[in-house]
Each structure stands twice: as structure tokens, then as C-alpha cells.
Amino acid sequence: VAFDGHAIAPETAAFLAERHQMLINGEWVDGSGEMVSTDPATGLPLASFATGGAAEIHRAVAAASAAFQGPWRRMPVAERTSLMFRLARIMEANSRLLTELDIVDNGMPSFIAGLTTANCVEMVDYYAGAIMRIAGETIAPPRHIAAETEALTYTLREPVGVAGLIVPWNVPLSTAILKLAPALAAGCTVVVKPSEMTPLSALALGRMVLEAGFPAGVVNIVNGTGPEAGAALAAHPGVDKISFTGSTATGRKIVEAGLGNLKKVALELGGKSPVVIMPEADLALAVPGVALATFFLQGQNCMAGTRIFAHAAIHDALLEGVAAFAGMMKLGHGLDPATQQGPMISDAHAAKVMRAIEGAQEAGATLVAGGSKLGRPGNFIQPTIFTNCTRDMAVMREEIFGPVMAVQRFETDDLDAIAALANDTPYGLSGSVWTRDLSTAHRLVSRIRAGQVSINCHGAVGTNIPFGGYGQSGWGREFGQAGLDAYLETKAVTARL
Ligand code: NAD
Predict the structure, then answer these.
(1) What is the mean predicted confidence (pLDDT) over 149-162?
(2) Could you please report the per-residue DSSP string of 111-164?
């Protein structure tokens, strides 16, 4: 089927032609409002969807609560495992739909969307397989009881309860699945609040959850704006845990909203990640690696390496290479397989990115490449590179969430001094070190304060690899065993025998 000059699957076209409701207690229902999702590459409307606020969130939390106390808690773990494997197979069979929905809703290039859909299927399989291995331990009983009688102490791992999952727009399906899959595996029930900018893939996922046969109320999806639906979920006394991915500013609000019932809060927030290129780095690797550290996903990427520290010995050669790479990047519609960089998510976000570019120029940074918004529909901003940046410039301090790279040259070989440059940020999500010297690599890695540091690559996320932030980049970890533990409580049991 043709979509704006590109081919999409008939099932995607059919999905876009529908009006979408929200999923509460196993049923598709209307809400108090209605929004329209748009294609950021063209600005054209995609599909309308029902939205809600406090009332809909309350109904969804009540449904999740009832399902948690009822069918979901009673279901044998082997059955829960099968349900999740079934969901993974349904997602796999609908990969093209899920991929195309994220492309048109978010603007991401097809090669990224294809990759994230495959990762999402892998993640549901991974957590399905982890269910039967959830286990406590046996421990020596306390001294005062053991002194009197035989005793037994063990731990139980129990689900946290009703989890509220608040999801951003930058990798819509992925950021939903990396919360939903471990939450369900742990035995929690969930209320998902997708981003109002990118609701479509989560709605398609909702259909797949029903098709797989999950009991009503286990997965609820309520769309709406952050200040309405998101804030109501974060504050709801019936929610035991909030897992939030989004900006650091919203993260603070989530924490405040959760104070009422002291719900558990996990936060995956923003970043301003350092990329350190040492004089002995392999530039053939580093040039594309550094370019994509910043420009992957048009820079709308929490892990983006946007503070580039280049040793003076390789600064000019590196910049020449990265600028040439940036100049060759093909900007376009994500459905075009040749596209390497898509549009900014919205007019407002593009305007914010352009203000950051202008601000860097005013502050005295040297523009090496890009710097402009393309004069065509959609918010396409050229991959942009600044050098001669200094620590006090906003371009070195603030998360821009766009294709903007800030380079600072350094002369020293002292690893503590280099790490001090890298660590000069309140964030601590990701980082990378580029060098052929193994000793230098590992000594620098141990000095960088971030939840994920890569050597000769950047942003190496994986289903089984813990991911999360130091500092103001967040609380807790997602992915891997840590991602499952985040939805489990530990109960210690001691029995006098
Ligand atoms: P955002 O904070 O504006 O929104 C995220 C979600 O929170 C959306 O669903 C939104 O509707 C909701 N929300 C907004 N205000 C709210 C409120 N007051 N109460 C409750 N919910 C509210 O973030 P965004 O613009 O969607 O995403 C971009 C940000 O997300 C960037 O800062 C990026 O670094 C971060 N991010 C982090 C990670 C990570 O894993 N650390 C991953 C992706 C994105």
C-alpha cells in the first residue's frame, strides 16, 4: 500500500485508517478526550486516538489491582511463561506492523526501527524464559531462634504489585517493552502510559496482548498527556511502583507525585554522555563511531555521546572525518530504506534544537558542519558539529536531544584529568573511550562515572546487559536480571520447627 510515496504493509495502512481507543480491563474503551498522532517527517495526520486523565487512570489502576489479586496471582508460573512466549511469537509475526508504526509515528529510519522491533521480541522471550528461574534462597536462621530450636529461614521473591509504566516518544515500542516484559514476568500487572506523541505501537501491542490471551486487567494502556494521564498515574495511591523513562525535569515531578504513598520509583532520565578519543585511537573505527554516537536516532537518544573530548594529536583528523561523515548522511523519511537520519519529533522540539545551535554560535563555539534546518516539510536538522567548545557553554552542559555534537580539544595525557573532563556533568548515563591501548581503556573506564561505558563503540545496549544512570540520569537499572529484580520484592520467612 502506498503511504506518502513509500510502500507500507496493508495491515499498517488498515491500522492507520482506524480510530483507536484505550485498553482498560481487557476492553477497548473511549476516554474523555481525543488526540491525533502525526508523521513528524511530513506533519501529516496519522490516526486519532482516545485520551484520558485521572478518571481513566483510576479505572485502569482498579482493573490492574483486581487482576493482580485475582487471576494473575493464581496463574501457575508455567502458564505465565507460555503466555509471554505466545506474545513474543505474535509480535514476531507482526514485526512489520510494529516497525512501520514506530517509523511513521516517531520518524526513525527503518534500519533502526527494524532493529528495535527484533530486540523487543528478544526481550519478551528473554523475560519469559526468566520466569521459571525466579527464586529465593535459604539462609541460616537468626541466632536467638536457632539457639532455642531448629529453624528454617528462606526468602520469597514476590511481585511489587501494580506497576505504572510511563514511556517516552524517542524509541516508543522499545521503551514500553523493556518495562512491560520484566513487569509481567515478575507477576506484576501494569498500566502503560505511552507518550502522547507516539501512541501507535503500544496500541498495536495491546491488541497482541489480548490475542495472546492475557487475563483482563493484566495490561492496561491509557493514552493522554503527561500533565493529565501521566501525573494521575504517578500520584495514584493504588500504584505500587512507577517506572519512568523521560526527561530529568519530568523525573523530578514523578518523584514528588509518588511521595503520597511512597511508591517505588525507577527513573531512566536524560544524559550528556562523554566520548573520549585518545591519541592512539583507531580513526577508521572512531570516525563513524563518534559520528553515530551523536547522530544515531537523529540525536533523540538518551545515550547519545554529545560531549566529544578529542586529544589534540588527533583532533583535526577526527573532525575532518566526522564532518565528512555528517555531510554524507542521508536525511529523509524513515520508510525510505536509504534514510540514515529522520526528522525531529515536533515543531516545538526542532525549535528548541535550533535555539541550542544558535546559542552555541553566540557563545563562541566554531561551527564545523551542518547548523541548519532543511527548507522542506518535516523538521529535518542537519547533523551539526561544533568545536572549540568549553565547559561553561550550554552546548557542553545541556541535553539537546538533537543531532548536535560539541567537541572540546584536550592536551593532557593524565587519565585523572581526562576523566575529570568526562565527569564534568550532573548526568551519568553512558560514555565511550576510543583507544588501541587496553590499559588506558580500562583505567579510563574505571574513572568515568556512568552506568554504561563502552570501549571502541558507543551505546552498547543489549537485552541481558544492565542499563541505567549514575547521578541525575536516573535511579535503578533496566534490562537483564536487574530489570526483573526491579519488579520483585524480597520477603524473608523464618519458621520455628
Ligand atoms: P518527557 O519527560 O517529556 O515525557 C516522558 C513521558 O512522561 C511521556 O509519556 C509524557 O507524557 C510523560 N509526562 C510528561 N509530564 C509528566 C508529568 N508531569 N507526570 C507524569 N508523566 C509525565 O520526555 P520525552 O520528551 O518524552 O523523552 C525525552 C527524554 O527522555 C530525554 O530527556 C531523554 O534523555 C529521556 N530518555 C531517557 C532514556 C533512558 O533510558 N535513560 C531513554 C529514552 C529517553
Answers:
(1) 97
(2) HHHHHHHHHHHHHHHHHHHHHTT----EEPPPHHHHTTS-EEEEEEEEE--EEE
pLDDT at residue 227, as a whole number: 98
Question: What is the 151 CA–ligand 1 centroid distance (Å)?
Answer: 48
- Taken as a whole, the chain contains a residue count of 497
Best mutation site among 195, 198, 259 for ligand 1, i.e. most ligand atoms within 8 A of its Cβ? 195
CB-CB contact of 159 with 75 (8 Å): no
| Nearest-CA residue for atom 23 of ligand 1 | 246
Retrieve residue 186's grid coordinates. Answer: 515478575
Q: Is the pLDDT of residue 203 over 90?
A: yes
Task: Give the binding-site residues of ligand 1, using a 6 Å CB cut-off.
Answer: 166-170, 175, 193, 195-196, 225-227, 230-231, 234, 245-247, 250, 253-254, 268-271, 302, 399, 401, 429, 469, 474
Distance 18 CA to ligand 1 centre (A): 27
Which phi and psi (to 5°) does residue 410 adopt?
-135, 155
pLDDT of residue 192: 99
Could you say which DSSP state residue 306 is in? E
Q: How far apart are CA 386 and CA 234, in angstroms?
A: 39
CA of 116 from ligand 1 middle (Å) equals 18
Kindly indicate the confidence band of residue 1, based on its pLDDT and cuts at 50, 70 and 90: confident
Looking at residue 272, the DSSP 8-state letter turns out to be -
- Which pLDDT score, from 0 to 100, does residue 3 have? 84
Q: What span, in angstroms and rounded, lies between the C-alpha atoms of 273 and 303?
A: 7
77 vs 89, 133, 185, 186, 481, CA distance in Å? 19, 10, 9, 10, 17
Is the model's pLDDT at 4 over the cut of 90? no
Q: How distant, in Å, are the alpha carbons of 210, 284, 343, 346, 470 from that of 131?
A: 20, 43, 39, 39, 28
ipTM of the complex, rounded to two decimals: 0.95
Which residue in this structure is represented by grid cell 506523541?
A: 197
Where are the strands (E) in 254-383, listed by range?
264-268, 273-277, 305-311, 366-369
**pLDDT tens digits for range 212-267:** 999 999 999 999 999 999 999 999 999 999 999 999 999 999 999 999 999 999 99
